[in-house]
Amino acid sequence: VNVDDWKAHTTYIGNDCDPQVIEWFWDVVTDFTTEQRARLLQFTTGSARVPVQGFKTLTMNDGRICLFAIQGIRKEECLYPRAHTCFNRLDLPMYSSKKDLETALTMVIKMEVTGFTIE
To answer: Which of 9, 17, 65, 80 could form a disulfide linkage to 55, CB 3.0–4.6 angstroms apart?
Structure first.
């Protein structure tokens, strides 16, 4: 998983996206092992593999292009990152430290996929 390509083809949603937290996110992803990056990609998109032509061709389940997106959310809304795999979107709480963000991301990628909810 090429982090530079992933980052270059990511959109950011909402007024709650703190640039510092976004920087921490990419620092953590860069420091992840190849397996951890694949698990994060699986958690957020439903697939552990990048499309052949890279993140610019990431699609929804109906085949339409849908770039990876990070939506900043308040920690009061949800303490842990939350994925919307149909939309390739990660709801990322705005943590107060890089360590808290790393701990939360590591926890969610270690969990097994056990179900889903409808938005």
So the answer is: 9
**CA-based nearest residue to 18, from 98, 104, 108:** 98
Q: Is residue 72 part of a domain?
A: yes
Amino acid letter for position 7: K
Domain region containing 41: 3-110
The domain tally of the chain equals 1
17 counts as catalytic: no
Q: What mean pLDDT is reported for the chain?
A: 91
In terms of Cβ atoms closer than 10 Å to its own Cβ (0-12, 13-18, 19+), residue 41 is buried
Tell me the per-residue pLDDT of 24-81, one tens digit each, with 9 for 90 and over. 999 999 999 999 999 999 999 999 899 999 999 999 888 899 999 999 999 888 899 9
Give the pLDDT score at 115: 52
Find the CATH number of the domain harbouring 21: 3.30.2410.10
Catalytic residue among 17, 66, 78, 86: 86
Three-state secondary-structure class, residue 53: coil
